[in-house]
Amino acid sequence: MRFVRILQDLREDRDITRKDLANALNISISALGMYEQGRREPNIDMLIKMADYFDVPIDLLVGRSYKNDNNQLLIEALHLKNKIDKLPQGYKDIVNFMLETQE
Q1: Through-space distance between the first and last CA atoms of the chain, rounded to whole angstroms
Q2: Cβ(71)–Cβ(59) below 8 Å
């Protein structure tokens, strides 16, 4: 069930509709809905398409990692990045400046 939650989170965090994601993956909205409801599992080719689309490792999509804490940190970082991406440019500049000064 981790995949179901992760797929929904990735799609919702990026404000992507099911229709838009289904079109991008070249599948039906119904098929995507079944993935998000846990009634169907994607094959490896579809997992690769999803990982490429969201620009995340397949391990993240399926909730696996050598260290599970790293997955959680990566998911949290993606959530934060998506929130930052939605900010007006001036605020993004401030966040980027703050991050650069922390290095």
Answers
A1: 37
A2: yes
- What's residue 103's pLDDT? 61
- Within a 10 A sphere around the Cβ of 61, how many other Cβ atoms? 20
What are the structural domains, with CATH classification, of the chain? 2-102 (1.10.260.40)
Report pTM. 0.66
Instruction: Using alpha carbons, select from 93, 44, 86 the residue that is nearest to residue 52.
Output: 44
Short-list 83, 61, 80, 85, CA closest to 71: 61
Give the helix/strand (H/E) hosting 61.
Answer: helix 58-61
Mean pLDDT for each 10-residue chunk of the chain (103 residues)? 85 90 96 93 94 89 67 74 86 85 72
Helix or strand or coil: residue 63? coil
Tokens standing for 69?
């804490």
Distance CA 75, CA 63 (A): 10
